[in-house]
Specification:
303 residues, alpha/beta, four-stranded antiparallel β-sheet, 26% strand
């Protein structure tokens, strides 16, 4: 378990993280979300002792990271996949790390195979593609078979097989009772991987909740309707608290009425329905609504 209490980090006049309090629960994959510049990487660095908090505290299983006598066997972290000696092979990089903690060489071979690096294990890390570098970073995080895993954008650059592997692997680790904190900007992937999410915006915690609850609280439910007589149906459904948004030829999204009520009205007037389905928002919809006022860097849309 990772617990942060009033965690704050300032760099001169810039506040990167402000009074952040949250818990990363054991036995769950916790997604760490937020726009660029929200403070996610700074928070992860404070968790593993690379940055000292200006105020507040953070602990892993009740202790600060610096208190661990054998940190690689307690906490595995991937914060920067490029943090390797580019002249060393993947195998030598892992062997050097293993030697600092007395980890046997057979474990190096295990994580090489586990991360899908067997065919390039003797290749210099400086020649790796982005995806291979990510795999080496994940292998490094797994080297000590830690109880807590902290991964910053681990699927960045991975192919679909690699993304699927990371998803299944971290969920399996959580199922074993380990603590997993995972950051990503890929909302669709996070919705498939995480059980719980923590959302930062401008250094503050905006949400700390299960994914299902976050989506329920920050998106609207509706009904997808399709009919060859949609205009007539829309007129019958029209009411002050009902919103009807066309979504295509003969199709619309209805908010304010449930599918049974819409079906009953259509049946009563002999209007055929080609589609009638309850819809819910996505994690991406919830995230965009939640962070709408917390984005520091925005892009201009093409018109």
């Amino acid at each position: 378990m990772i617990t942060a209490e009033g965690l704050t980090k300032r760099y001169g006049e810039k506040t990167a993280v402000s009074d952040a309090t949250f818990t990363v629960q054991t036995g769950k994959v916790t997604g760490f979300l937020g726009p660029n510049g929200a403070g996610k990487s700074t928070t992860m660095r404070m968790i593993v002792g690379l940055d000292a908090p200006t105020a507040g505290s953070v602990a892993i299983d009740g202790r600060p990271y610096r208190a661990f006598r054998s940190p690689l066997t307690e906490v595995g972290a991937l914060l920067d996949a490029k943090a390797v000696h580019t002249g060393r092979s993947a195998r030598d990089h892992l062997r050097v790390m293993a030697a600092t903690h007395g980890i046997p060489r057979r474990r190096v071979d295990e994580v090489i195979e586990l991360a899908g690096l067997t065919s390039v294990a003797n290749k210099r890390a400086g020649k790796f593609s982005l995806g291979m570098g990510q795999r080496l970073g994940i292998a490094s995080a797994l080297l000590g078979d830690p109880h807590t895993l902290i991964l910053d954008e681990p699927v960045n650059g991975l192919d679909p097989e690699g993304v699927r592997w990371v998803r299944g692997f971290v969920r399996a680790l959580a199922a074993e009772g380990r603590t997993v904190l995972l950051s990503s900007h890929l909302m669709s992937e996070m919705s498939l991987t995480a059980d719980h999410v923590i959302v930062l915006g401008r250094g503050r915690v905006l949400a700390d909740a299960p994914i299902d609850r976050l989506v329920q609280d920050w998106t609207q439910r509706g009904v997808a309707v399709a009919s060859p007589r949609l205009t007539e149906l829309a007129a019958l459904l029209s009411a002050p608290d009902v919103t009807i948004t066309p979504t295509g030829d003969g199709a619309a999204q209805v908010e304010g009425l449930g599918a049974p009520a819409i079906g009953d009205i259509a049946a009563a007037h002999g209007i055929p329905l080609h589609a009638l389905a309850e819809t819910t928002g996505s994690l991406e919809d919830a995230y965009m609504a939640l962070t709408a006022d917390a984005v520091e860097y925005t892009s201009k849309e093409l018109s």
